[in-house]
Amino acid sequence: MTAAPLPPDVAAAVRAPARSPNRAWFGPAFARGFGLWWLVATFLFLYLPMASLVIFSFNASPLPTVWGGFSLDWYRKLAGDTEIISGLWLSLKIAFLSACASVVLGTFAGFTLVKYRRFRGRTFFGGMVNAPLVMPEVIQGLSLLLMMVAIQRAVGFPERGLFTIWLGHLMIGMSYAAVVVQSRLQDLNPSLEEAAMDLGARPFQVFRLVTLPMISQALVSAWLLTFSLSLDDVVVSAFLSGPGATTMPLVIFSRARLGLNPSVNAVATVIILTVATMVTLASLWVARNERRRAAEISEAQQDDE
After folding, report:
1. By CB neighbour count within 10 A (0-12 exposed, 13-18 middle, 19+ buried), where does 143 fall?
2. Domains (ranges, CATH) in the chain?
3. What own/partner pairs with CB < 8 Å and gap ≥ 24 does 254-260 have?
4. pTM
5. pLDDT tens track for 221-276
């Protein structure tokens, strides 16, 4: 007995594939194209202004945005601009000192928050470590200024200058370094440290021989981050700077009120090249350590087999 044929409209509906409710409205080709376009647009938005700044640093025109031909005059004039050179040197010194101290204190803070889960005042300590991340820099700079003025009136120290700017940058940089180091410590396998202690290593030896090498990449990242934050800080430096202690961002900011010239583009180009070189070298170092660690893990697994 044969079944009766279905009506044409019913048969077409049966043959048509059912549409999944989660099926994307656009195909994979559109998704790849849109993702590529968005990536290119983001990189242009981030790096096109810096590329134009580098190009106009070789401008022969005294106007920073009007091209007048290729020239190296502004780099020669930059070498004789004592105000910018002294401000740049002061900024580099403060950034270096601030980054080193921020990494040390941030490592201690992150290690305390990760390894010691319970102690009196832990919540308050964690809040104070993270407070500079969300507090406006105007409030931080003003509060530090008032505190420094009160201390100076009481004991005659410190004078506003390199030391006070360094303290302000240290307060901010320590919080960023603590977050970076803390996130790395949370991803570590605690069994490695426990194995070292079972073999007779003391807590300081465990930290120096096991923990510190494993977080070395996070320390480098935290150092570069805090160095960059200190190098281009304006608000806190404006509150804490004193006579004869003007950082490079403050020099540029003061000149922007009267009109900039391409010498500012030249010093910005030098900074961009310096920071880019440091980041490239750090990235190569991190990648080499990752490959070496992966090779050591692979060799250890082969030996166990």
Report:
1. middle
2. 30-71 (no CATH), 82-304 (1.10.3720.10)
3. 260/64
4. 0.78
5. 899 899 989 988 888 998 988 887 888 888 888 877 776 777 788 888 888 888 88
